[in-house]
Specification:
Low-confidence stretches: none
Keywords: Detoxification, FAD, Flavoprotein, Heme, Iron, Metal-binding, NAD, NADP, Oxidoreductase, Oxygen transport, Transport
Organism: Paracerasibacillus soli
Mean pLDDT: 92
Shape: globular
CATH class of the largest domain: Mainly Alpha
EC number: 1.14.12.17
Strand content: 15-25%
Order of helices and strands: HHHHHHHEEEEEHEEHEHEEHEHEH
Pfam families: FAD_binding_6, Globin, NAD_binding_1
Number of strands: 12
GO molecular function: nitric oxide dioxygenase NAD(P)H activity
Length: 410
């Protein structure tokens, strides 16, 4: 990504002057933006996750991106690490250049509506119009490369391709695995351990298509993709997951599911230092891919696999992990149950992963740490790793939301 040399100094100064108000009222602006955009372009509900809309996750993510872009409008390349996961998701969701003018138009309208004409005057809106175009061009350029990369490989494709459910396996009370093969029986692209696919669910009775991203839970080269999906049940004010329940209830062997090519930059490294994989709940899915991959590609690398879940009834792939540890002496696995059942005997810790326990089972802080799970779980693991003085470049996590919610939590 190049610097924004096309913007004049006055435009840059005006945009940067809006940083404090964006920091304060960004959520209001982006919430208004989505409302206006969906009113005028309801067809975009086929792309955007409406559950995240209701929860406000999408608005927060966009607000943080806009705020970061405004603060670094004269050097957009400095925020490349932050936008890289977003561009990966955009490619996976099939976001195209023609979507960006729609977003820009409604973002400016939302700024005017929320901030009023005194703040969002002609000069401010004009400057932001120019700045948005630079930001959009940066995203479009990166995403063009990602589309080319996804298609210019053996078996690659753009958009969505029909896959068939070759096998459906119940892994626990709430997690089921779906093994997917191309419906056309043609070659399909490989992936890197830790990546995900987007599934397109056309659910009877639903007005719009639902897109969801699920990590691949197997190693590449297995002759199929595997996703392991948690059924999201209704809890309190949170409704049941539309897509996860549809997949569990309606997808059977032989069913067709359109999916995008694998995407994502949460990828296991090829270092020789110990690999520490930490998961909570269904966060074990990318960790399983990494575990299966590393035991094949780096058979001498020390691996510590730590999984936390409620109890044995919720513990997916337990026997599979046990088989891997029995076969590979360099792999050690630990299980933590926060609410074990009387029948649960085979676990290593009751409660949660705390600093003392974690630093006792991990041999060194000079290791590659990967973790994934619920937000609160990940915030706790991140705090523990920072307290353990793990270098930032050795901390890797997957979170389908604003990454700073993990790294900045107290």
């Amino acid at each position: 990504m190049a610097t924004t040399t096309l913007l004049d100094e006055q435009t840059i100064n005006i945009v940067k002057s809006t940083v404090p108000i964006l920091e304060k009222r960004g959520d209001e602006i982006t919430s208004c933006f989505y409302k206006l955009m969906f009113q005028n372009h309801p067809e975009l509900k086929n792309i955007f996750n409406q559950t995240n809309q209701r929860k406000g996750d999408q608005s927060k993510a966009l607000a943080n991106t806009v705020y970061a872009a405004a603060a670094h409008i004269d050097q957009l390349e400095t925020i490349l690490p932050a936008i890289q996961p977003i561009t990966q998701k955009h490619r996976s969701l099939n976001i195209k250049p023609e979507h960006y003018p729609i977003v820009g138009k409604h973002l400016l309208l939302a700024m005017q509506e929320v901030l009023g004409e005194d703040v969002a005057n002609d000069d401010v809106i004009g400057a932001w119009g120019k700045a948005y175009q630079e930001i959009a061009n940066a995203f479009i350029t990166v995403e063009k490369g990602l589309y080319q990369k996804a298609t210019n490989v053996v078996g690659g494709w753009e958009g969505f391709r029909d896959f068939k459910v070759a096998k459906k396996v119940v892994e626990s009370d709430v997690i089921t695995s779906f093994y997917l093969e191309p419906a056309d029986e043609e070659p399909f692209s490989s992936f890197e351990a830790g990546q995900y696919i987007t599934v397109k669910a056309n659910i009877p009775g639903e007005s719009y298509t639902h897109l969801r991203q699920y990590s691949l839970s197997c190693a590449p080269g297995e002759g199929m993709y595997r996703i392991s999906v948690k059924r999201e049940d209704a809890i309190g004010n949170n409704p049941a997951g539309i897509v996860s329940n549809y997949l569990h209830s309606h997808l059977e062997e032989g069913s067709i599911l359109p999916i995008s090519a694998p995407a994502g930059d949460f990828i296991v490294d090829n270092e020789t230092k110990p690999l520490i994989l930490i998961s909570g709940g269904v966060g074990l899915t990318p960790m399983m891919s990494m575990l299966e991959t590393v035991t094949k590609s780096q058979p001498n690398r020390e691996v510590i696999f730590i999984h936390a879940t409620r109890n044995g009834k919720f513990h997916a792939m337990k026997e599979h992990v046990k088989a891997i540890t029995n076969k590979h002496s360099q792999v050690t696995a630990y299980t933590i149950y926060d609410n074990p059942l009387e029948a649960d005997k085979d676990y290593d810790k009751q409660g949660f992963i705390d600093y003392e326990w974690l630093t006792n089972v991990v041999p060194t802080n000079d290791a590659s740490f990967y973790f994934c799970g619920p937000k609160g779980f990940m915030q706790a693991i991140y705090r523990h790793l920072k307290a353990f003085h793990v270098a930032e470049e050795n901390i890797h996590f997957e979170f389908f939301g604003p990454a700073q919610e993990i790294a900045t939590a107290n």
